[in-house]
Predict the 3D structure of the following.
Amino acid sequence: MERRRAWYSIRLAILLTLAVALLSFATGVANIATPTVVPGPLSPYVHETIQQTAGFTGALTGFLVLLSFVGLRRGLEAAWLSTMILLPLTAAQGLLQSNSLSLPLVALSLIALVVVGFNRKRFTQEVSLSTTQLGALAAIAGAQIYGTVGTFALREQFAGVNNLTDAFYYTLVTASTVGYGDASPTTQVARLFGMSVIVIGTASFAIALGSVLGPAIEARFSRALGIMNESQLATLENHVVVLGYGELTEPILEELETTAEFVVIVPDKEHTTELSERGYKVLTGEPSDEDVLERVGIDRARAVVAATNSDAEDALSILTARQLNPNVRIVAAATERENIQKLKRAGADTVISPAVIGGHLLVQSALGQRGMEDFADRILDVDEQHTDAA
């Protein structure tokens, strides 16, 4: 019950952040278009220019909050920090917009600030940027600094450049190849410098696009193939973790397909491809590997199932899963009758031996015992009731 409340609390924080992002953008645009149509209580005290500026920056802040929302969905600590910084800003911008349409933004921002702050410990994932991505960010920053400083130093040789803001603006529109023409070089030296800004700026943007689109395309292929990526793994909640794959696992997957969300850990790519083609969520790795179990959210799982053809491997996987989550329910299937107690000692709550059950059914059916066809169904019903009670 406590885990379920925590899950709902996290989801509420994320949804409130999304609502603030959309409302900030919408009120910002509305305030720019019609700043005085629906005046608010602070309208007489806030200059119209400030209202328009707050509207423009409010729309931009809404976009930034939307990026933080994406990070919160992945459980990123940096996203939590940026959200806690941006929410007071959206509330302040709502006040400065002095429009009755922006009053809900103020209230919602403050509510979201409290809820997101309350869930601080739920967002602990660190941002992992590759060397290429860090290089791309450095290239963009370096190109912008180079262009801004150089343009400002040569401002006497540029038309429409009088301060650092103008220099930054010229560099941005030049590097992005927009080039409005309201700021332009007037000397040969300034033109040569402008050409260098174009080359360096476009190259840095190209590198950045490659570093961003590459992982995005990879994620799209992962979804198409059914293989779990980091974003999908981070959103798993109240799911079933299936450790390994074997003949005993097949009927379990068919049953889980219609009853619960689950993810399968398999050690080889052959089974990964086979299961992903059937639409199952799969992660390639050793079921007894702590890092792999943590990636599939063993701490958030509702149950663990181990039913391969190797009791020894299942015992090791169960032992690791139990250490990582002492409270999760673990069910195992023993291929050998003498291994039932071993699997229980490893940490399994329930161990079922298909061989023992199958032998019992065969003997009772051979002796003419009626109702044996419903025996398995009764076992499943009892086990389900036991799970609900737990």
Remarks:
- Residues 2-122 form one domain.
